[in-house]
Design brief:
It is built from 3 helices and no strands. It is an all-alpha fold.
Length: about 80
């Protein structure tokens, strides 16, 4: 009985770590989106590569641990935010 409890506790602990990592990556993604929005406002070329790199990391984590995926960002999406 004790090993079942320990196993469940370890699973919950690992899941909490995945969720924490997911939240950190999601926050990083949001910062990069804001930076792209600022680039767009200033008339600079919009760089979405950094956003989508983090998005890919989020989606890999999401797929492995049953968390919600995020959409890849396009230049058009950033331009729409500025309208």
């Amino acid at each position: 009985m004790m090993s079942v409890h320990r196993s469940i506790s370890e699973h919950v602990s690992r899941q909490a770590e995945y969720i924490t990592l997911y939240r950190k990556l999601d926050a990083m993604r949001e910062v990069r989106i804001e930076q792209a929005v600022e680039q767009c406002k200033q008339g600079k070329e919009i760089d979405i590569a950094a956003i989508n790199y983090v998005t890919e990391q989020i989606n890999q984590l999401a797929q492995q641990h049953h968390l919600p995926p995020r959409k890849k960002v396009t230049v058009e999406m950033i331009q729409l935010i500025n309208k």
